[in-house]
Amino acid sequence: MLNYLEAIKRAETGPMSMSDDFAIQLIAKKVTELQRKYDIRYDPDVRVNTDDDLADRVWQAGRELILHTGLFSLNSRRRIMFDEQEIDETLAAVRPEFTAGEGKDAAHVYRRDVEDTRPPVIFGGPFNADVHEDMFVKLNEAFASEPLVDVLLLPGYLKNLDGIDIRPNSGLSTRAAMLYGRWSREAIDRAGRPGMPIVGHAVMALNEIACTNEEWGLRKNDLRAYAIISELQVDDVTLTRLAYYHAIGSPVYISSTPLIGGFGGGPDGTAIIGVAAHVASVMLGSHVMHLGPQHIQLKQQTNAMSLWMGSVIKQAVARNSKMINTTSVTTSGRPGSLQYIYEFSALALSVVTSGSNLTGPRPAEPLGWNNVSPLMCRLFAEVGRAAAKLDREEADRIVEALHEKYKDTIQLKDAPKGLSFEAMYDVNTLQPNEGHRALYMQGKTELRELGIPLE
């Protein structure tokens, strides 16, 4: 079984490679070979995969890919390699559940099976939106006040303090990191959920210590997050974070965003990379593996290819491992529009029935500050819970109907512009205004009419 410390060492001692050689000669070439070997093909008429054998073949191909390529360390230009025994032993030792947070507000975080009837764990919050300092506490308090949100997710980027843009690695950036931790804790305190877990990270690795404090900042029992860089790459920032998170004993939340249209080609080849990234996350000691099924040109995750890819990756992982996994939901439509509801519902149905928990939602291209909605996160959670009552065939039918509603405006330039938090909420009472409540009810009615068993 591999220890994360050994992975860090291998970033300094592994075989040398150039970035282009790693991406083209190792990843792209091997993915093409594995697609043929395992007969992995995308069906454009399917939104939610129902072929168990295909999911198992995608798993085998992804596992073989990471054995062949390893992870590429961008700064050292070395490959972090794993062998079969290390992968098998590490996968066997994966913890399928754990508790985050503390006291009455603690969250039970667990893996799900394909067509699991248990509700998904909801990671909901600003999701790294640009959040203005004047609204940071209010916006996060509103998210934390939603009882269906289990874990407060990535409370937002502070890019400006006191009218001054924050320069990375400056003294002001350290101050921002401290406020990020302090204000996140204040928000959950104000929401009456002081033990609620938070998924968080400082913007720069050097500031992780600055936002960590048991009394007023991110705690040891909060999940700490970073991303594997597309495709199958890490850098000194991610490895520095990894070492710190493991040293303080925090649960580790690793995201990956395999790019449809990138080195994996279409959604079928990219699905292989997605599975490889999940395995790599476990090898780095992750407790929660997050998938963003991204399209490189559309720059979002609810297109037809992403819906299929998300479902097949989640099924591959759920059927063949004990990993706790989740899927991010990034849309073309913005909060304040019906399209936003259609899109996040489509991907939620696709992946929840495939064995995933849920992360999100957020717009792929936010327009301005605070472009997120806690009320829409409530509906997202409700859809996720309802999805656990469906099988994949039922979900596929509904997802197809939803996709028809937004497919013609899926380009970011054509999608509804949406509204800011301040335009959807009373910022004093932190309650959604009449117009936003009406949108929530209209969306919920339409979703019920399509067959989603919402309560």
Keywords:
TIM Barrel; globular; alpha/beta; eight-stranded parallel barrel; 455 residues; three-stranded mixed sheet; single chain
Describe it.
This protein has helices at residues 4-13, 19-38, 52-69, 84-92, 136-144, 171-190, 236-248, 267-283, 304-320, 338-352, 374-387, 392-406, 421-424, 434-449, and strands at 71-73, 78-80, 97-100, 107-110, 122-124, 151-153, 160-161, 164-165, 198-200, 223-228, 233-234, 252-256, 259-260, 288-291, 294-295, 325-331, 357-363, 425-426, 431-432. With 455 residues, it is an alpha/beta fold. It has one domain: Monomethylamine methyltransferase MtmB (TIM Barrel, Alpha-Beta Barrel), CATH 3.20.20.460. The strands form six sheets. It has an eight-stranded parallel barrel with strand order 5-6-9-10-12-14-16-17, surrounded by seven helices. Strands 2-1-11 form a three-stranded mixed β-sheet. β16 (325-331), α10 and β17 (357-363) form a beta-alpha-beta unit. The longest helix is centred in the N-terminal third of the chain and has 20 residues, at 19-38. The model has no long low-confidence stretch (mean pLDDT 96).
Q: What's the gist of this structure?
A:
The protein contains 14 helices and 19 strands.
